[in-house]
Amino acid sequence: MKAAVFHGLGQKLCVEVLPDPEPGPGEVVVKVGRCGICGSDLHMTEDPMFGVPAGAVLGHEFAGEICAVGKGVQGLKLGDRVSVPPVKGCGHCASCLAGEPAWCAEMALIGGGYGEYALALERQIVRLPSSASLADGALVEPLAVALHGIRQSSLQTGDRVVILGAGPIGLATAFWARRMGTKQIVVTDLHRYQEERAMVMGATHFVCGEEDHVAQADRILGGKADIVFECVGVPGMIAQAVEHIRIHGEVLVQGLCTRPDSFIPFKALSKECRIQFAAFFKTQEYEASLDALSSGAAEPRAMVTETIALDQLPDTFEALRKRTHQCKVLVAP
Fold first, then answer.
1. CATH number for domain 154-277, candidates 3.50.30.40, 3.40.50.1100, 3.40.50.720, 3.40.50.300
2. CATH 3.40.50.1580 fits 2-142+281-332, yes or no
3. Is residue 146 over pLDDT 80?
């Protein structure tokens, strides 16, 4: 099979021919139909914190068709169209049984979506309904991450919301916030590339430009925000979120920041605000995200800006290290 292979930090992915995967007991092989390029994959290829081994095939937002099944697989058959949650656990501990494999002691993240075929465990698989496309299946994971952030927060109907960052997670957060009845949703970003897309996804206002974003949002909302979702993940964003928030408000941090950061604790203390972090998703949230797509929610599809062939992946991957008009790029291996 062909796959885009990681060889080391700072090195460009390389499309190579690898042996086709063979399923072991309880495993299936998925013929990848669509795979999203995620910002965390960009982090993994440039930050030693993640420890990605040379020879790895990344890509964790994927969907496809079952093309081989291993011994003991009973609930899946050849030809089934599936989406693959990338978090796997032991399958029998309290966390796994509660639908939270991310907190299993044996948790591991799977990739493989940047190849023509990928291995997955039967217990990971979520079948796609006939109303969902393979492209929909590749959008489920970022939608589930955003939904988890929403559910980790104390969001209530009528809250004034600010979302920092108009990337896929920020836009998906706007989608869920609006779907849950929030009337005022301000999305902020350094560029206007995603302004129209943010409005389609659920934002009521978009803040950009050189003027202070906090002052702009305050004017729009008629005061400070009840909840701020930090979806950027660079130093300084938690401090900015605290500036946006009202007394007794909440900051929900989802941005993936691997560098040291700081803020002035007194500014948060003086507002008695809550700072909550959110990571990964629950199995139920993954299924709810797929349900939203399969039941007709068209807004998340607006995130897809381009679908490329596998041979285009290395160049496109490098180009995404800089902000452009691109939002969610899908690969069709």
1. 3.40.50.720
2. no
3. yes
Cα 212 to Cα 233: distance, rounded to the nearest angstrom: 19
Contact assessment for residue 293 and residue 269, using Cβ atoms and an 8 Å cutoff: no
- Who's near 267: CB < 8 A, 6+ residues apart? 239, 242, 243
pTM score, whole prediction = 0.94
- Residue 185 carries which side chain, given as an amino acid letter? I
Fold match between 2-142+281-332 and 154-277? Answer: no
Q: Are 194 and 171 in contact (CB under 8 A)?
A: yes
- Residue 57 CB: number of other CB atoms within 10 A? 20
Q: What six digits make up the tokens of 22? A: 């063979």
pLDDT of the residue at 162 = 98
- Residue 300 in 3-state DSSP? helix
Q: CB atoms < 10 A from the CB of 231, how many?
A: 29
Asked whether 177 and 155 are in contact (CB, 8 A), the reply is yes
The tens digit of pLDDT for each residue in 315-325 reads: 999 999 988 89
Sequence-distant (≥ 6) Cβ neighbours of residue 1 within 8 angstroms: 17, 18, 19, 20, 21, 115, 116, 117
Q: CB of 42 within 8 A of CB of 321? A: yes
Q: How far apart are CA 309 and CA 13, in angstroms?
A: 14
Q: Where are the domains of the chain?
A: 2-142+281-332, 154-277
The identity of residue 280, as a single letter, is F
